[in-house]
Specification:
By secondary structure, the protein is an alpha+beta fold. The chain has a single domain, classed as SH3 type barrels. The chain has one helix at 55-69, and strands spanning 5-13, 16-21, 24-29, 41-45, 48-53. Strands 3-2-1-4-5 form a five-stranded antiparallel β-sheet. The mean pLDDT is 90.
């Protein structure tokens, strides 16, 4: 099973984005997404931002994770 984490982009420098996922910040590759901007939401897998997502997607992911972990 593959797991991706939803995260909010804090900053972007070249092909590297600083993202925040539930308060944990880390740098990930932004090479797969064109014109990534701070404030956008992304799905992160294996150290790379692989897709843009919406705030609604994050809410749904968090709800499912809570249900799964309960």
């Amino acid at each position: 099973m593959c797991v991706g984490l939803s995260a909010k982009v804090v900053s972007v420098k070249g092909d590297v984005a600083l993202v925040d996922s539930s308060g944990a910040r880390r740098e990930v590759s932004a090479a797969l997404l064109d014109d990534l901007e701070p404030g956008e939401f992304v799905m992160v897998h294996a150290g790379a931002a692989i897709a843009r997502i919406t705030a609604d997607d994050i809410t749904e992911s968090e709800t499912l994770a809570k249900e799964y972990l309960s």
